[in-house]
Specification:
The protein is an alpha+beta fold. It folds into 2 domains: about 130 residues, 2,3-Dihydroxybiphenyl 1,2-Dioxygenase, domain 1 (Roll), CATH 3.10.180; about 130 residues, 2,3-Dihydroxybiphenyl 1,2-Dioxygenase, domain 1 (Roll), CATH 3.10.180. Helices cover about 25% and strands about 40% of the residues. The chain is built from 8 helices and 16 strands. The strands form 2 sheets. The protein has an 8-stranded mixed sheet with strand order 2-3-4-1-5-8-7-6, sandwiched between helices. It has an 8-stranded mixed sheet with strand order 10-11-12-9-13-16-15-14. A hairpin with a 3-residue loop joins strand 6 and strand 7. The protein starts with a strand and ends with a strand.
Length: about 280
């Protein structure tokens, strides 16, 4: 099992990070923290934002030149969720532990000037690119206050992953990251099963969803894309007010306001958010 300290950020790929960062701050209250230009060894630029109410950041990366790995992702997948980054205690110990678990550290251990990093390739993880890092030095203190944006966002609750085999993915998360199962369920009406797990050192939870019949929305996602990150779920003060705020921004809440046994919720469709399906719910 890897020695995870915390979940640092979730990253998305977009053609240009600037308008995407502006949208995230205006609508969801993801506060802009800093941006960077590509250095000699990088073919991408981007920015980092602070997520309200949750000890994690949200990153936007964009291609800086033709042939960038970000451009290849955009060409194949379109804009959307790209990777999840975890801080570990020791990068070389983490790489050695991956080897012991039968997983080759993707790209080996590298130094980008700020971090020592390695990766778990999606083909080894079941669909997600995981970035593992150790920073050269502590991050500088910055203003991380947030407003919640137009929708009144309170916190990010979980990131969700769609897979064909839920048991295999649960076993991977437990064996590699030490995640613990918090709850499990089956939704017969929507045709899927789900599981929520805790992430070591993080307020963000990790959800796994898998189809239980061929017409499930999860199966349609898998057929049209591939196993991987499906959506991000955030709590808002009021779904009613969030929906009204979205309409004021020219965004129609996808599916309207939905009542379920779990909570009231609505969605922001990827075509309106720049590539990410966001679920908004109220307690």
């Amino acid at each position: 099992m890897l020695p995870i300290k915390r979940l640092d950020h979730v990253s998305m790929a977009a053609p240009r990070w600037q308008p995407q960062a502006q949208w995230l701050e205006r609508v969801l209250g993801f506060r802009f923290l800093h941006s960077w230009e590509p250095n000699e060894g990088q073919d991408f630029d981007g920015c980092v934002t602070q997520v309200p109410g949750t000890n994690m950041e949200f990153e936007v990366i964009s291609p800086a030149r033709p042939g960038s790995f970000v451009q290849k992702f955009l060409d194949e997948q379109g804009p959307g969720l790209h990777h999840i980054t975890l801080e570990v205690e020791d990068i070389h110990a983490a790489a050695a532990e991956l080897e012991r678990l039968g997983i080759r550290p993707f790209g080996g251990v590298t130094d980008d000037g700020s971090w020592y990093v390695t990766y778990i390739h999606p083909k080894d993880s079941g669909g997600i690119l995981w970035q593992l890092f150790v920073a050269h030095r502590p991050a500088p203190q910055v203003d991380r206050s947030t407003t919640g944006g137009a929708v009144g966002l309170v916190r990010a609750d979980h990131v969700s992953m769609a897979v064909p085999d839920i048991e295999r993915q649960i076993a991977f998360q437990q064996r590699v990251f030490g995640m613990e199962v918090l709850s499990r369920w089956t939704d017969e009406q929507q045709g899927y099963s789900g599981c929520e797990l805790s992430v070591p050192g993080s307020q963000l939870k990790f959800e796994i969803i898998a189809p239980t019949r061929p017409d499930s929305f999860v199966q349609k996602f898998l057929d049209s894309r591939r196993p991987g990150m499906h959506h991000v779920t955030c709590q808002v003060e009021s779904v009613e007010r969030a929906a009204a705020a979205l309409r004021a921004q020219g965004i129609e809440p996808w599916g309207g306001i939905i009542e379920s046994d779990w909570h009231r919720h609505t969605f922001i469709h990827p075509r309106d958010s720049g590539g990410v399906l966001f679920q908004l719910f109220e307690e």
